[in-house]
Amino acid sequence: MNQPLRVRYAPSPTGHLHIGGARTALFDYLLARRHGGAFVVRFEDTDQTRHKESGIEDQLNGLRWLGLEWDESVDIGGPYGPYRQMERLDIYQTHLNQLLQSGHAYPCYCSEADLEQERAEQEARGEMGGYSGKCRHLTPEQIAAFEAEGRKPSTRFLVPADRIIGFEDKVREHVEFESNGIGDFIIARPDGIPTYNFAVIVDDHMMKINLVIRGEEHLSNTPRQILMYEALGMPVPEFAHLALILNQDRKKMSKRDESIIQFIEQYRELGYLPEAVVNFIALLGWSPGGEEEMFTKEELIAQFDLDRVSKSPAVFDMDKLNWMNNAYLKKAPLSRVVDLCVPHLQKAGYIEPQLDEAGQAWVTALIGLNQERMRFAAEIVELSSIFFKEELVIDEEAAAILKEEHVPVVLTSFLGQVEQAESFTVEAIPALLKQVQKDTGYKGKQLFMSIRSALTGQVHGPDLNVSLYLLGKEKVAARLQNLL
Ligand code: GLU
Is residue 60 within 6 Å of ligand 1 at its C-beta? Predict the structure, then answer.
């Protein structure tokens, strides 16, 4: 490609950034950065029935959070704006007129009822049909009659017969369609607003887009678009159609599927790290070739290539994403993890909105204790509930331990140590435990498991000294008294 690469993500702003859109945008972004090209974000808002004004900001927020900075869009402008279609209506009108004049398009006066009838007749004959083309050759008199009835025409593109429309897709390789299977399609509605297929080619051309990356669901639109490019004498861009993303059951993902988290906003709310989500999404269809799976954005930019994007569907593996996010969380600075977790603890009512220095240190220790274990920040609430709940839930294993003979001796001795302890910090606690060992003669598992089971209700868990400090002297003493 001699021209600098120009790619675009062109969402219809109907809501939040979906994982499928995010993948398209990420692939766009990576290629643009890799090749010193431009990444354009354009809003396709001509379908006013599905349009949601907040969808524009929602989409941009999702991209922003993922760190996919764009070069041109509604907020920052650019040389080929405006970047939302409803502000480009006059541009489409010019091209629509051109198609009408050259005979590549024609007005169609068929009403919904007419079309319904046509479809029913086709069905009765066992035909699979597009539009019959019945308005292709209206006489001026017929047109005048329709106009007199007050009918407003939509505009249809005239699909030439007997054409094979082929193109080399960057992912799917050679793709071919027969024009005979495509009925004349509507490119502008009676109110003059263009349909997706028409607006998209005008925009991609005017915005000098030379590579169109999008989901496979648009593959069947591509021959229609190629025919229009040709009719307007415009060069056809390259295409890359990305295979579907399947859910964990290897079924087509529906927006209602709850087995996976589908919107980027939800990941942000649950306290995932954007770099983990980016890393994970990059692997939905792309494979780097080696064994390595962890990539920073910079590494992705250096390595990403459509040649290694698969034609087969990608399977969205939520467990893998959680594994990956945990790996990123483990490596993140504790202060960052604290910032992510604190709002969740506040929301659960576990901590006050304002913390003094001691409170801050306590929360930091609490989160630090769980940093290795959490898959995403919201999990801190569940992971740390033993430090907040008044009532202790003792699981089966812990209950079995607590029935052992030595336990009362150990706990009584520890209670004594706790009650007379002057300091109950992480540093001071080991000496208390050491003293219990001396006084009772129990050590190792018999000592630690008893205390852990009694105070956390579990046999396994994070660092015991830190756990005891986090519970605090009062809670520890109360729980021991309770049990004894
Ligand atoms: N607005 C279309 C969509 O959201 C974009 C399709 C395209 O990229 O051409 O699916």
Answer: no
